[in-house]
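## tool: complex_structure
## caller: assistant
## args:
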Amino acid sequence: MIELGRYSIFASMLLCAYGLCAAFWGGKKGSLPLVRSAENAVLANFSLLTVVSISLFYLLLEDVFVVQYVANYSAADMPWYYKFTAFWGGQKGSLLLWSLVLAVFSMIVVVQNKQKNRALMPYTVFNLMIVMFFFSLLLNFATNPFETLDRVPVDGQGLNPLLQNVYMIIHPPILFLGYVGLAVPFAFSMAALMGGRIDTAWIQTTRRWALLSWIFLTAGFTLGGRWAYEELGWGGYWAWDPVENASFMPWLVVTAFLHSIMITEKKWMLKLWNFILIVLAFELSIFGTFITRSGVISSVHSFALSNLGPFFVVFLFLTTAFALFWIIYRSNELRSELRMRSFLSREATFLLNNWLFVSICFAVFWGTVFPILSELFMGEKISVTAPFFNQVNWPLGLGLLILTGVCPLIAWRKASWRNFRRNFLNPLAVGLIVLIGLVILGMRNWIALAFFASSGFVLMTLILEFYRGARARQHIRPSGFLVALKDLTLMNKRRYGGFIVHAGAVFAFIGIIASSFFSVDETFTVRKGEVFRISGYELRFNELKQRRDPEKDVVFADLSLLRGGEQYGALYPQKDFHHKSEQPATEVAIRSQPHEDLYVVLSGWEEDGAVTLHVFVNPLVQMIWIGVGIMVLGGIFVMFPDRKPASVPVARQRNSAVRAGSGGVKKTVLEES
Amino acid sequence: MKRIPHIKFLIAGGLIVGTICFLMFSGIDNAMVYYYTVSEVQSQGKQLAGRGIRISGHVQPGSIEKADDGTHVDFRVYEKQTGRTVLVSYAGLIPDTFKDDAEVVVEGIFDPGDPSFNATTLLAKCPSKYEGKGDQHPENLPVDQVSSAQ
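## result:
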């Protein structure tokens, strides 16, 4: 199996080299046989990488410890599912996973476009194969997962206990699906530039890919946050750690991209901007893979800089230069024919939304690479800490939140006072009511107040939008309100799915703000039987106990939740001592309720049986997970194709679109002319 | 199409870029943390007063003194190359990985008047398992991160 894996990975590299040449010449000479051959190389490469991956899975499951990777990340007594996930427990396997996902996606692209997009396909295959080739170079020469050891160890070192967790089974692959998904729109966009086909074909083909990638990135970094929250025991879910930022940055840019392509499809503006965004998103996904996998920034990792750095730097540089060359080369064709007319127009607010996303990304990027930059230019290594990120990003985030309400409702071209009154008066009133209500209830934190009031405003705009849309639909085709609501949503999934995503984002915002500003924590050192209180909770420490599981020893504190002296719940914060690893792992006890989480960490104990507990009360954390869940579902909903409206006459279609004040119609030639 | 709107948008864009630059530069001052080695801290002493600094090194074996409540610890960070040490005092949650000879990073505001460095953040990495193995290092393993500022 070792040999099989090794040879297949080498063959895959050669195949990629052939495929990219064939695709390029095929595209240049317009030779269909060559292009077909390149496409077949994509399919063959997919089979090869499947073989490679199965080999590694086999080696992991069969405990073949002569393979260095298996010895490092697996152990004989690990349960089979952790052996399975050890595949992406380290650098080599993760990069193999990256390649595998790319091979699968490329295969899907080829199969989907057997008949379609023939003009774009040669260069698309070329671009995909270049990325593929880069990763197969890494796998062959820099970080081969099939490297063997001279001496066969008796047992492996096992997967790090911190990673033995359900979130870590699914989090890395999901995040990688998100990263790799960006390669497809990138490949198509570059193909559009190389072939000089600057129409919306590439956007329409890759919109779903970008969305798919967005869905996976959203789910991916949220699962990462949830893992940190439950596993690391510091009471929070986001620390602006470089690895977290790495997944956040491409997300920001691809979110901007998903918004800007709407303007291009409807108004034929922002053409150049789309290309810049998708290139940026792709480069950031590579950069993200790089900092996640090379440890170049995080200082604690600095003692083991990996040998991947130069490869990634060169690849990032070359692909960016390549993309910039083509963007500049075609810049004349990328000018918009239409100009913005007013700030108070949908185009302008969309553009502002894009600027905000990109600004947040820039600030996060700046903070993330600051240690490298300061060392290069100031001779001193300086890092920036979480307060920087929070301080820069909250005003930008607030701006985005408000735009979430404004963008979809403001008129194209130039908003009138009538448009304003009609769409924004009620939501503004709701925002004001929320503000006054919270002030009366005693909230004085004005940042939080601004966020909550804006959330009220946005939620009201969303409710109104669904309500009005359904009413308008009832007008066209009389039916019950709920039926109309359902039809409306199903017939225009992009628009209304987008609103569902927005609603989820508002919930997530509320949860983030509440848990950042109103969290309470305290450390208690308590003896057997002692009762302690924190923000309305009464807890009793009963006993420190020990348990022996097959793979670990567990020390846990037995706590009772009391109400009026009666026990109504129990919590068991614990520390695990895995036999394989010297490193104990904290298992937090969390009692989740919709309005707040009670979060207890066992931080230490004394010989006399006293324990030290760090207790947090985090409000509305659940709202973040629910909000993101809604965002992901909304995104999936948008993925489905629209049900075609049953032959409504064009004239009526125009009327209803104007009435709903929306981009409900496919092309806006109607409004434009 | 008139020229004027174009200028209007340029000004607006400039304002936004300006705001963001302002936010970034005003935000960065309080959040900067300088990386120093143990010997740099010792030789520069007073110049570093009031700065947020981050020192990395190893926990000197036998130097850990935990207070009874388990949330306060005094220990020495030593530099492998020079053998120099600095006394660190930390209050907060102690990471699981913190032990003799562990690779640690401490962060805090430097006060030259204090005999020990008061750390508000303590990051630790398990000593024996990964050290000196080059690329076998588990790159994206989140370090057990604890901060009392949280």
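## assistant note: Confidence is low (pLDDT under 50) at residues 127-150 of chain B. Chain B has three helices and nine strands. Handing back to user.
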